[in-house]
Amino acid sequence: MATSPKLIAAAGGCLLALYVGYIVVDRIHVSTALAAETRENALPDVAVVKPIQSPKKVALTLPGNIDAWYQAPIYPQVSGYVKMWYKDYGARVKQGDVLAEINAPALDAQYAQAKADLASIMAKYNLSNVTLQRWQAMGRSQSVSGQSVSVAQADQQSAKAQVEAAERNVAHFEALERFKTIVAPFDGIVTSRDINVGDYVHDGGGNLNAAGAASELFTVADVHKLRLFVSVPEVFQYVLKPDITAEVTVPQFKDRKFTANFLTTARGYDPNTRTSTTEFEMDNPNEVLWPGTFASVELKANNENAHLYEVPTSALVFQEKGMQLAVVRDDNTVHFQNVTVGRMADTATEIQAGIGPNDRVIANPPADVLEGDKVNVTVPQRGYNQSGFGKENE
């Protein structure tokens, strides 16, 4: 039975209509998906964190400098040439041990002159005594006037005063003569020797260096105990309590920790650094630590603001209205919330008021985000939390 041409044409028309319809529907679907993707891509991606409660304990690591318990730079008190030095770097000395001797010919000559002057004045004084006795004897016999006796007595008193002055002068040079011998002021270690035999030194200073300034002859340090100096920022003043201890590490003993006890603080801040010099004391068993050592100092204390919440420091927004945080509402729109900021650190900042534990805070707000803008909240892959803030936020 032959197929009718009209039937064939109708079937072809139906197929064509179905094909055209499929193409139209497919294009509409693609267009709709593209529009949805475009709208989604138009929203900025943001990562959010929730505020976390401040820890009950606060730990602070600061650089410090270890110094000797006592340390004395030693300068000469006389001018001359170094005759000999007896103690070198690292020598252990006792109080009074001789460190060096100085030849001082000019001082020796002045000392000899002072003694000669004393002898001369003493002879005149002795003569004035004899003269006064003679005048007093003649005065008792009325052989001379009372005025003459008074003059002789005044001459004797003047001679006596000259003797006392000459004796003081001799004592002065005797003291300087003793300074020709340089001695250790206390038990300790010689940490510096800046003289050699034949060097010229002058009173009040050591050798003249290249810049023309005087340097010390020796430095002696008592290292049975040590002092640790740390510059503590003013925002962490509350950490400084009389019973606080510091855990100290030094580069030369990486696997060893030392303990330092709080001694005192300057009770004032350096206006340039906003820090207060704080002093700790350390025992130094076997004198393993040396003065001048750099130290890493860890301080731990109870956090008085443990009731507050912390957010990443990168989340803070500085506006003319004050400090703000960009908070994402339930409908994924942005609201800039005014907050009161407490202590600030590199990674986290305490918020005293303005947010709660359930707020979603943008960790690093884009510069072009405005109030009421809609955003796309993204969740970073575990281990890629760029805010570095709180494991619970990953």
UniProtKB/TrEMBL annotation:
Domain named YknX-like C-terminal permuted SH3-like: residues: 310-377
Protein name: Multidrug transporter
Top-level taxon: Bacteria
Biological classification of the source: Bacteria, Pseudomonadati, Pseudomonadota, Alphaproteobacteria, Acetobacterales
Chain coiled-coil ranges: 149-176
GO MF terms held by the record: efflux transmembrane transporter activity
Gene Ontology CC annotation, any one: efflux pump complex
Pfam families membership: Beta-barrel_RND_2 (PF25954), BSH_CzcB (PF25973), YknX_C (PF25989)
Domain (CzcB-like barrel-sandwich hybrid) ranges: 72-203
Family indicated by similarity: Belongs to the membrane fusion protein (MFP) (TC 8.A.1) family.
Record keywords, A-Z: Coiled coil
Residues of the CusB-like beta-barrel domain: 230-302
The organism of origin for this protein: Gluconobacter albidus
